[in-house]
Design goal:
mainly alpha; Arc Repressor Mutant, subunit A; two-stranded antiparallel ribbon; 5 helices; about 10% strand
Length: about 100
C-alpha cells in the first residue's frame, strides 16, 4: 500500500487515496485531503458533513447513502457537491477518514 507524508504524519492509503484505517484519522488528514481536493477553506458546513459521516460510520460501519446524508445534514445534494466538488463519496468520505464507499454515497 502507498503512503502519504504530510505535516510530520504518515498515512497508509489505498489506490484511490483513501486512508487505510479510520483509526489513523486526525486533523492533519483533513488538511491533506483539503489540499488534494482543491478546497480553499473549510467552513462549518464542511465540518457538519464530516461529523455526520463519521457519526453514521461509527454507528453503522458504513457510509450513509447520499439521500440519508442529505437528510441528516439538511443540505441539498447540489450543495454537498458545492462543498466537496469531487462528491460526497470521493471527497467528503475521504476527508472524513472513511473507507472508500462501495455503494451509492
Amino acid at each position: 500500500m502507498p503512503t502519504v507524508e504530510f505535516e510530520g504524519k504518515s498515512f497508509t492509503v489505498d489506490e484511490d487515496g483513501f486512508i487505510e484505517s479510520y483509526e489513523d484519522f486526525c486533523p492533519e488528514w483533513i488538511q491533506w485531503v483539503k489540499k488534494e481536493e482543491g478546497i480553499e477553506e473549510l467552513n462549518e458546513e464542511h465540518t457538519k458533513v464530516i461529523d455526520v459521516l463519521q457519526d453514521y460510520y461509527e454507528k453503522n460501519g458504513i457510509a450513509p447513502m447520499v439521500r440519508v446524508l442529505s437528510k441528516l445534514t439538511k443540505f441539498k445534494l447540489k450543495h454537498i457537491y458545492e462543498l466537496f466538488p469531487s462528491g460526497p463519496g470521493k471527497g467528503a468520505c475521504k476527508m472524513a477518514g472513511l473507507p472508500k464507499p462501495t455503494g451509492c454515497v
